[in-house]
Fold this protein.
Amino acid sequence: MTESSSSSPTPLDAQLEKEIADALGDQTIEELMQADAPPRKSAAVPEDEADPRARFGTVAGIRDNEVYVEFSAKEQGVCALDQFHKKPRVGDRIEFIVDSVIPGEGLLRLLIPGGAGKADWKTLAKDQIIDAMVVGMNTGGLELKVANQRAFMPVSQIELGRVEDLTPYVNKKLRCKVMELDRKRKRIVLSRRAVLEVEEAANRKELVKTIQIGETREGVVRRVQNFGAFVELVPGVDGLVHVSDISYQRIENPADVLSVGQKVTVKVLKVSEEGDRISLSIKEAGPDPWQGIEARYAQGADLTGTVTRLAAFGAFVELEPGVEGLIHISQLSDQRVDRVEQAVKVGQQVTARITEVDPRKHRIGLSIRALTAKDVHNTTETTSKEDLAKYVVKDTKKARTGESLGALLSKFSNSSGQKGGIG
């Protein structure tokens, strides 16, 4: 890599370029930050020339946190391992910057263009990972200082997700990647998102190795949407808790029960092979309210509950948090009910009799009709002769439906004329 290639402007993603243009307008980054004085130029590195200290060397060995480099038989150097994005291998030929001579050892202290660590204007390069201080903000992003130079970070490059409030980032040091470096225009564009994406990929790869379906983990709610909540399991890696998996109680809006930053315990339901889709459940990480349900709700017992929602086929009644029973439309009254809302309303307290308890299917059948019916033992959802008669189509032309229902009436009537049930 030469200095000219690292200091000349490089093409960016079209959307990112648009964000930068919208944020800066005709201003330079310096003007945007309203600097009192322009930064001093470095005499050591002319803006239009390569760094004369740049040299290519061969990796001769790696020991502890240091990389030993050979330039010739009589000239060697050492470079800190954390300068590299990726651990080098012996024999690799790499470009280095000669920083100084180590006193008493005769070794050259080396840096690499694009190396991680504290930014230096003389060696700053595109793709370098550096620490930058946020000194301000504007509608388009963050204003930072890098090696006493002004820099800009578009709002889309701050986090992996959308950022609404920039205030918390001011006066904070952020680890960033240099996306664009133009020394002549003194334009530096940074991205924290690029660093987070690399970290996320590494964390996700490690998570996939250890995560097990069915296990419980601790997490932190990072985003809440109308369809569910994203819970961070390890830094940068989220799983989705669908709204139906938040609670055994019916949840209309996840924001009613979850908030960003809240710590939760989740159960792992599914994980894709790549680990990019993780399904979680909060409700299954806790006790199941349906366990032991038969001991608390016996068939034939009467109880009181609150109507929580209505459907065309009946009304749901909450018996306890996470446990609902269903009153079928045919069991709402001993009179014919055409629409559920004619008999009950949401929020209304009702007394009903338990007609069925099925813990495996999480189902409890209820009946209001059973409390008022003449035959108190007939609590199942059967259909009598009179019920069928109400649905018979009385048409002078004897429509096929009417004839069929009429046949049913004849078939299931008995000689005494008493009410009988189908089945």
Summary: Residues 193-210 form the longest helix (18 residues).
